Amino acid sequence: MRPKLFCKKSLALGSACCFLAFVRCFTFGFSLTSWTTNCRNPIANGQYRPHYMISLIEAKRGDCTRVGRIDLVARQGDALASKGARILSENPLVYTISNFLTEEECEAYQEYVKNLDDRNMTRSNPPAVSLDAARLWPLPLLSLFAGIPPVLHLMEEQQTLPLVDVIQVAVPNVALALAASGTLAYAVVLPLLRQIAKRSSRTSVAVALNTQADHSFIQTLVEKVGALTKHPWTNWEAPVVTRYDPGAIFSRHGDASPIRGEEWKDKGGQRVITCICYLNTLREGGETFFDCLNIAVKPEAGKALFFFPADGVTWIADDRTTHESKPPIDEEKWIVQMFGRAQRVPPPLGLADSFGSSDSKDELSV
């Protein structure tokens, strides 16, 4: 007797098994994370849009995904010590430097942005969300469970189970379960995450200082950051000034790409360094919180925070550096941030070649 290839009961059971496995994959063994490019640039609006990639990453409490040690403490120890750095974490390296900017410089950045005639601070564009397909590898394996119910049903009808018959009854359910999982991921989960990111991922406003007219103003900051990190200005995104109004947030995210910057090949590649300079002191709230490290950095005028979201050699993202901006309470939070990439960052995301010219260096800077 030939096996029944398409049993409604076995199909329903198989689909249910696959769906439950899919849900478990999201809720118990994995969690969602996001990263964003630093492209809140009204001048280049539409050319570089904020981009979030939602991927499945292993996330067990107290044991965030690890990468190889970035032994920057040993290589930069003397330089960091001379700058009065406070090491918050050695692996991964996270440190702060108080008075990295003077009080006058902090006030100057806020006033400079407020007085820009050609640009206004704008909220980040609705982020484009995508799924990292490489992180969906469990789904094909989980879909195999959908083939179990029809095989069990066949065992009730036949005493012997030829391999051909087993394959014939299992394959349709496995294929359907795999298709259903893919459809669920891209037709249900992805649009849902897009709506969530659009509504609540980030509620701050910002402006990029990336024009020729900005060069003289940002020169001191760019040179100071480059000298400390030994990372050339050509490989930095242009500084961005961001304002968080009371209650504004930037939810948990990572600054690096989970696929080693492959999608950023024409934008400088992977992000390997993050620098956040706080422009004002907050009495309450507004901390930069690293959830995996349980580190909270309180905003203080002039303080600079440095960390390394990806390995500078392998470009592998370090999931331990995921962080969020806590909402400020009853006052604004101002920062200026820069992101160092693995390669040359072309304008307008980065700075034009003219930034390195002698003419630019002769002009007055803050």
TrEMBL record:
It holds the Pfam family 2OG-FeII_Oxy_3. Residues 92-341 form the Prolyl 4-hydroxylase alpha subunit domain. Its cofactor is L-ascorbate. One of its GO terms (cellular component) is endoplasmic reticulum. The chain crosses the membrane at residues 174-193. Gene3D superfamilies: q2cbj1_9rhob like domain. Signal peptide: none annotated. Keywords: Dioxygenase, Iron, Membrane, Metal-binding, Oxidoreductase, Transmembrane, Transmembrane helix. The keyword Repeat does not apply. GO terms for molecular function: iron ion binding; L-ascorbic acid binding; procollagen-proline 4-dioxygenase activity. This is Prolyl 4-hydroxylase alpha subunit domain-containing protein. It comes from Fistulifera solaris.
